[in-house]
Records
---
Amino acid sequence: MRIIIRIVVNVLLSLPLNLFAQLTADAGPDKVLCFGADNFVPVQLGSNPTAVGGTGPYTYKWETHFFYQMGNFTITQFASDFLNDTTSANPIVEWGTFNHTPLYFKLTITDANNQTAIDSTIVNFSSWLFTNDYWEFHIQQGESIYLNYGAGAYSNYPPYEYLWRPGHGITDSIHESFWAAPDTSIVYNVTITDALGCRIDEMARYHVYVTPVSTENISINNTIRIFPVPASQKLNFRLKQQQTEELLLLVYDLTGKMILNQVFETVNFSVDINELKPGTYIYRLFGGGELIGSEKFEVL
């Protein structure tokens, strides 16, 4: 009897361990397919390995069902409509649903001893649409402009993150709309990332052309004198020509933010600047709706 028991034990110990191991299926983590994005990567289902335990060889079966209505007809699609191989351990997702509905993929694995194991994964589809246009603007050096025509692309997974480059002259580079006051002509590009992490890179959106003006004297026809420069309490304006229309004075900081907006009815006037922070500012003076002077000045 001892000899028989010992023989049985020896035979059991000599058998492959995976004969007694539980078969496990691993369909892999949920995935995202970024259609039309710059970080597009083909989606591969399954893990490495997809089947663990049991006894090989294994058979794999991927399944899904997608229904949509077309008129009076109900259309049904299956895993073979989306995967390159429904019997592979690691098939590739070649296409997504027409309306970007996420797909639930069920994986069934069967081993050589007819053990079965089941797992599942979800694939989300982010698809980008583009307006394919850009905007041109022409400004004078020292002017600012509000760029709010949109970023030009969107996906089916908001909200979006924005990054405008280069950062020169921009007051806010992470929102869709922003103020810009570049010193030279420039093209602003945007990178957009949606809620699934799908990304569009460096879309050229805004072309801003800046007309340079002399920083020594940019008053038109030398008709305006300002003093003292630099100033600390008051900035005085003297016009060398008669002006019958009222005068509109606008003062901006270098980010393009308007600081002062005042109207005057005389050609000689003073502006209280004691509340301005020390730094460089730009004034623009209009008479009769036309620009008659623009110049940088320093505040102490």
---
Amino acid sequence: MLKLVSFLFVIAFVYADEQKHWALIVAGSEGWDNYRHQADACHAYQIMKKHGIPDERIIVMMYDDIAHNIENPTPGIVINRPNGPDVYHGVPKDYTHSEVTPKNFLAALTGDEEGLASRGLFGKKVIKSGPNDHIFVNFADHGAPGILAFYNKFLHARDLMSAINKMHSEQKYAKMVFYIEACESGSMFQDLLPKDINVFATTAANAHESSYACYFDKKRRTYLGDVYSVMWMEDSDKEDLQTETLQKQFLIVKEETNTSHCQEYGDMSISNLDVAEFQGKMKSRTTSKYDRIRIPNPNFGAVKSEDVPLAIQYQSVKVAETEEEKDKYLTKIAALEQKRTQTIETFRRIISVSLNHDSWKVSEVMSSRMTLRNFDCYEPIVEALRQECPGLNIPQNDYALRHLYTFVNLCEIHPRLDNDEILDAISKVAEVPDSGC
């Protein structure tokens, strides 16, 4: 009897000490023009699944309006490269549509079932990790200084850092890795992510530049992927993840991505671990004809994320079969160009009112490029713009996101400026009929 009890104790101890792998995969955007983000997310899921992470430990957040979109010529199928395989089949629908929010993302990451329940989301999948577990987080969407966009809301860098630090203090992981596909994604970690909390992050871009979309598809009239995401996922598809380190994968992606400057942050010792430690330890036993086909270089024909809506229309003009069809796309181009001009003017008006119409100061703010440090000033401005200028649709208007650096400049160059004055300026401009708000 004593031997049996001892045996059961050993088994229980080993089981309790077992390391688990978790993955949280997010595409924050919606709409056909943003097809690539959900295609990236679906492909990432397939990699985790293929390498042995079970569905109960893979969480997928995506709007889910692409596979069965009216514009999809292949209903129910999503691809991530030209003539590529379907990556949508089997993808879990853990969080979709309006459930794709920063709060729900942080709740899923930290295992906050009570927080989800308070918002009416019962029984949703969350990461229930322990001190021995490894967590892989992949995000694809739009970004700006200190923010990642989720459909119609923002995840702020400090909120993400707060969640990570809390998880570390509560011993909810042994090691955690982030792969972030977004413009200015480096700003989510630069000077923010500690090097001693067992977290390693790589990003598609540095803190000041765009990430790039790739693979325009003439049949679908949209871009299929993002350069950084395609690079790391195609590498994971072909490499033995048990012999390739995170650092090796990063260096490959960095070297082969010539559209933006991929970055790494946090605990560099983690980068010496095998990719399998985060993307799944099982060696894939399945190969297909797609695994043997050399993929086209995603850098060729790649466009800045903020230029995607315009680029889609220009590409569509080229393949239009009738003059009527061509005129339709040209009309859309004119409307997009007008919206871009209006966006810049809206930002200029707000800054001008904030600075009492001092033209020299306004010019300085509009033309500088400062590093975000004054979060207390910047974050309320971003939220006020999102709420009071719905016409700009900033979370999904990547061109507007590219100009949020002007408000970083405003906060950094004029730190003594009363925040209420800036918020009041936003309200005043929003009341003007042709303001764009």
